[in-house]
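Per your request, structure below.
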């Protein structure tokens, strides 16, 4: 089956990784951004500026939706419940949904409404910042990862989404073990985003500060333990190698949780630390570092109000 049409909900930092290339390669008539009311007006009147080019993508309201082959969801955690409702008219019998958000629970939340036959696992490995509708980034640095839980042999739907990404010139990877990939990314986010957010430090401080690294490592160990209870094995060696990756990130870069705090926005702390505390309780695994992140970062949000 060739996928010919797509809709995107969430034209933010992650959304702009997809939208320009999807509009160009699928054709304007086969691509739309889902939005309503003020957001729709803003996107139609001002658009978004990506690498210096201003785009006015076709915008459909949830009510105007028609079935699409692929739906990409790229909202933040707080917007997910609404977005799940808003995509309803775009999901037909053969539609596949990629919910590219961070965290390990978004696919389950989407599948609880639309069924697993419509949902593939997915996540993004890249860093893009969008401010005031503008983002500048290298469109070939970083990838979208997607697939079934295991991908030793590619299913028809994974092949179909891969083919669409190829045609749209969008870098992607089908990870053999998507559950491992999803949890590894989650572990890095919990360790890095939350340490940086609580302490107010950029990525580069992990190169210089041993205590910052101790906190990062302790948080990662909590995620490793919860992952193990769920049958996903992340080794210490794999965790150690992440340090080399961190050292390649520009010194002053800040993860999204700290960016959100500095912009006085609500963070995705519930998706990162809240989920860890909840899953830790369910599995009987102590998660004191994640608990401190959860409560501490909520205080920082309160300070911003
Ligand atoms: N930025 C990054 O580098 C990375 C982000 N991620 C993850 O990807 C996800 C998305 O993050 P990011 O792109 O940075 O977030 P952004 O805040 O940049 O983008 C989210 C977008 O969704 C829009 N939106 C929210 N609800 C709706 C809705 N109901 N209908 C239509 N549009 C909606 C928002 O619009 P509005 O602005 O009008 O509210 C906003 O444009 C998060 O889970 C994040 O953790 C993962 C890897 C890297
Ligand atoms: C960019 C990256 C990978 C940093 O942890 C991220 O996922 C985020 O900031 O939310």
């Amino acid at each position: 089956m060739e996928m010919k049409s797509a809709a995107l909900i969430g034209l933010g930092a992650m959304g702009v990784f997809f939208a320009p290339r999807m509009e160009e390669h699928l054709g304007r008539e086969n691509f739309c951004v889902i939005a309503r009311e003020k957001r729709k007006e803003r996107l139609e009147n001002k658009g978004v500026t990506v690498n210096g080019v201003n785009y006015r993508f076709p915008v459909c309201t949830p009510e105007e939706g028609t079935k699409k082959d692929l739906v990409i969801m790229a909202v933040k955690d707080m917007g997910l419940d609404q977005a799940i409702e808003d995509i309803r008219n775009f999901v037909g019998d053969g539609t596949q949904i990629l919910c590219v958000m961070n965290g390990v629970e978004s696919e389950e939340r989407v599948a609880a409404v639309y069924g697993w036959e419509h949902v593939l696992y997915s996540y993004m490995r890249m860093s893009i910042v969008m401010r005031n509708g503008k983002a500048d980034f290298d469109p070939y640095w970083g990838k979208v990862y997607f697939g079934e839980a295991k991908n030793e042999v590619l299913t028809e739907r994974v092949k179909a989404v891969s083919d669409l990404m190829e045609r749209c010139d969008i870098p992607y990877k089908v990870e053999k073990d998507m559950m491992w990939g999803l949890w590894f990314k989650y572990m890095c986010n919990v360790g890095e985003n939350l340490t940086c957010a609580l302490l107010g430090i950029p990525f580069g401080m992990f190169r210089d500060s041993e205590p910052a690294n101790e906190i990062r490592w302790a948080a990662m160990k909590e995620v490793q333990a919860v992952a193990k209870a769920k049958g996903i094995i992340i080794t210490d060696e794999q965790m150690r190698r992440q340090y080399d990756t961190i050292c390649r990130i520009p010194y002053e870069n800040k993860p999204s949780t700290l960016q959100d705090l500095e912009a006085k926005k609500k963070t995705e702390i519930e998706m990162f630390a809240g989920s860890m505390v909840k899953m830790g309780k369910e599995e009987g695994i102590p998660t004191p570092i994640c608990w401190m992140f959860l409560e501490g970062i909520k205080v920082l949000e309160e300070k911003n109000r």
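Residues 9-15, 34-35, 39, 74-77, 79, 82-83, 86, 100-102, 124, 126-128, 130, 256, 268 surround NDP (ligand 1) (CB under 6 Å).

Regards,
D.
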